[in-house]
Amino acid sequence: MITKSKLIALVLGCILACSTSGVVYALEWGVKEIETEKLAVQFANQVRNGGYGIVTTEELKVWLDKKEPMLIVDTMPLEASYKKNHIPTALQIEFPVEEMSQLDEAKKAALEQLLGPDKNRKIVFYCGFTKCGRSHNAAMWATKLGYANVYRQPGGIKAWMEAGYPIEKEDK
Predict the structure, then answer these.
(1) In the sheet that 150-153 helps form, which strands lie side by side, from edge to edge?
(2) 91-149: pLDDT as tens digits
C-alpha cells in the first residue's frame, strides 16, 4: 500500500523528471532553432532588399528537365569550385560573399556581357549553400541593372548534390 507521503514523493519526482528533461530538450532545440532563425531572417532580408525571386533546388531541376529557356549562373570561384562541379549548363562569374554596396565598372561590364541584352530572360544565380551571399550579390546587381526575371537558388551546389542531381565538371 502506497502511503500519502510516498505518493507525493512519487508525483513530485515525476514532475521534476519531466520538467528537467523538458527544459533540457527545449534548450537544445532552441539553440539550433535560433541559428536557423537567424539564417532565415538574413535570407528573407536579402531577397526583399535584392528584389529578385527564389527557386528551390527541386523547382530548378524541373525547369532544367522541361528545358525551359534560362541562364544559370554559378557565382563561386572558377578554379576552387566551378571547375570541380557545377549545375549542368551553368556559366560562371565570381562574386564576393559579403554584400556589395557598389559595383565597379569592370564587374558591371562582365555581368552585363554574361547576362546578355534580353532584360526579360530568366536568370538563376546560385553559389555554394544557403549561408553564402555570392548568389545574393549577383541576383541583386542583375536586378539593379534592369533584368526583370531574376531568381536565386539558395541551397546552391551543396543542395543540388545532396539531392543527387547530375553535375558537370570542367576538364583540367
Answers:
(1) 53-54, 150-153, 123-126, 71-74, 91-92
(2) 999 999 888 899 999 999 999 999 999 999 999 999 998 888 999 999 999 999 999 99
- C-alpha–C-alpha distance, residues 36 and 158, integer Å: 17
Q: How far apart are CA 132 and CA 44, in angstroms?
A: 14
pLDDT of 154 strictly over 60: yes
Please report the beta strands in 24-144, taking only residues with DSSP state E, as ranges in sequence order: 53-54, 71-74, 91-92, 123-126
pTM of the entire predicted model: 0.80
> Over pLDDT 70: what percentage of the chain?
81
Look up residue 12 and give its three cell numbers.
513530485
CA separation for the pair 107, 102 (Å, rounded):
10
The answer to whether 129 and 138 have CB atoms below 8 angstroms apart is no
Estimate to the nearest angstrom the gap between the alpha carbon of 99 and the chain centroid: 15
Task: Look at the chain and count its residues.
Answer: 172
152 phi, psi to nearest 5 deg: -125, 130
Residue 19 pLDDT:
47
